[in-house]
């Protein structure tokens, strides 16, 4: 009873659970789709690795849906900076192995994990250098990383930023968002520590290509998007865009041009990068 009361009290204090917040509806949709999102991650990873008897680290695990999906036949550790989110995971999904930790200082031994999941996390971290060091340290020599993150230079995101739903915000640096956008339009969130700064495909390649074989998963995700968008999009803008494309029978054209190449389509149109990165053999 005391745990339940404490959780309810924390719920009222969390901005992302505040029904009066302008982003509440999109956040609520994302929460409800957390398990479906986890299933998509697993489907993409199964193209490269049998997902059984693996040690898996889910960093920035949020609502816990992905950790829940992977917990079947694997040992999964769910890591999040928010203690409230970890409490909600335990209540909603009975997540057993959770750690309240900063991703920049992971409390695990070297070479502990076969798979690391980074689902819409990396854009929220200000110290990418230390973060990269940590995930490389705890990943096994033959390990793989799943990474999803919004595309800074996607025309779609420039029209409507995935976090704020406003034009142009996607291309701003973190401090510009804080000093201009939040200062004048969202003062209540001025001190947020997890403020997102979107990154480009070129930056991802620069961060990972020396040590990892990088495989985009755009084609598969786009096919899933038009057959069942659950777990892929949840903002009003993106949902309306999908409906419009279907209405005018443009979905087949989008599926046809979608590809997994490191070219113009993915650099400037794909709204979210979905990548599987295999560690290179030494």
TrEMBL record:
Matches recorded under Gene3D superfamilies: Vaccinia Virus protein VP39
Keyword tags: Methyltransferase, Transferase
Alphabetical list of InterPro entries matching this protein: Methyltransf_11, SAM-dependent_MTases_sf
Organism: Ignavibacterium album
Record GO terms (molecular function): S-adenosylmethionine-dependent methyltransferase activity
Annotated protein name in UniProt: Class I SAM-dependent methyltransferase
Pfam families: Methyltransf_11 (PF08241)
Residue ranges annotated for the Methyltransferase type domain, each copy included: 57-146
């Amino acid at each position: 009873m005391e745990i339940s009361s404490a959780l309810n009290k924390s719920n009222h204090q969390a901005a992302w659970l505040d029904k009066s917040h302008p982003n509440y509806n999109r956040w609520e949709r994302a929460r409800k789709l957390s398990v479906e999102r986890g299933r998509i991650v697993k489907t993409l990873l199964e193209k490269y690795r049998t997902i059984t008897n693996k040690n898996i680290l889910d960093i920035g695990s949020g609502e816990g849906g992905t950790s829940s999906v992977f917990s079947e036949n694997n040992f999964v550790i769910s890591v999040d900076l928010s203690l409230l989110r970890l409490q909600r995971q335990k209540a909603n999904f009975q997540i057993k192995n959770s750690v309240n930790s900063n991703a920049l200082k992971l409390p695990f031994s070297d070479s502990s994990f076969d798979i690391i999941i980074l689902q819409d996390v990396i854009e929220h971290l200000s110290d990418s250098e230390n973060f990269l060091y940590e995930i490389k340290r705890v990943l096994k020599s033959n390990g793989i990383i799943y990474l999803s993150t919004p595309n800074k230079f996607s025309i779609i995101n420039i029209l409507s930023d995935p976090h704020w739903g406003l034009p142009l915000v996607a291309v701003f640096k973190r401090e510009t968002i804080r000093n201009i956008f939040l200062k004048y339009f969202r003062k209540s969130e001025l001190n947020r520590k997890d403020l997102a700064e979107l990154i480009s495909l070129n930056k991802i390649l620069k961060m990972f290509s020396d040590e990892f074989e990088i495989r985009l998963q755009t084609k598969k995700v786009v096919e899933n998007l038009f057959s069942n968008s659950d777990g892929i999009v949840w903002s009003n803008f993106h949902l309306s865009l999908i409906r419009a494309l279907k209405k005018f029978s443009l979905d087949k054209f989008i599926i046809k041009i979608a590809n997994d190449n490191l070219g113009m389509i993915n650099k400037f149109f794909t709204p979210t990068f979905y990548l599987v990165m295999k560690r290179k053999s030494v």
